[in-house]
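Renewal narrative, Specific Aim 1. Our central claim is that a sequence can be written position by position from structural information alone. The example that follows is taken directly from our test logs and has not been curated for this report. It begins with the structure tokens describing the chain, in the order in which they were read.
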């Protein structure tokens, strides 16, 4: 099999975790799993007549009540996880990318989550739905931290997300 036959889409997050004084708590590299809804949406938009989602947003996965994510999860139905919503803002932060280069796209400035309530995170997700806590939109991917991440009031998560086609 040559390289042209092994094309696949991959993504990963780099999350820089800082406390309220700006001290670095940790840096996490988190590969994502693209769910069926996200993959089918991409195929419909690129090769079919599907409507393109031109804006994507990031959200945080709460560890509280987490039982698992599934490749069949969609934004309107993901029974194994809920969104962690105790951070500043009514809307999820937008993932803004530059032009594709070297077979990848990424955000040039970090996407920052200013934490307003203590909790434990399980992961991060990408959706076309803007409103924090809502279930509208297309679910693109879900990524889990290698172990849970405890956040406190005043912490900041600075996120970079990259999608590549190797």
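The sequence written for that structure reads:
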């Amino acid at each position: 099999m040559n390289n042209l036959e092994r094309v696949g889409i991959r993504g990963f997050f780099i999350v820089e975790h800082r406390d309220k004084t700006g001290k670095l708590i940790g840096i996490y590299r988190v590969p994502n799993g693209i769910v069926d809804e996200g993959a089918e949406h991409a195929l419909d938009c690129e090769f079919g007549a599907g409507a393109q989602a031109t804006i994507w947003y990031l959200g945080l996965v709460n560890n509280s009540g987490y039982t698992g994510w599934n490749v069949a999860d969609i934004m309107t139905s993901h029974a194994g996880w809920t969104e962690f919503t105790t951070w500043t803002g009514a809307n999820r932060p937008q993932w803004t990318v530059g032009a594709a280069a070297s077979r990848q796209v990424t955000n040039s400035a970090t996407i920052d989550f200013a934490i307003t309530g203590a909790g434990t995170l399980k992961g991060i997700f990408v959706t076309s739905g803007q409103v924090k806590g809502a279930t509208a939109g297309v679910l693109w991917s879900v990524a889990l931290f290698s172990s849970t991440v405890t956040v406190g009031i005043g912490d900041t998560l600075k996120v970079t997300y990259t999608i590549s086609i190797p």
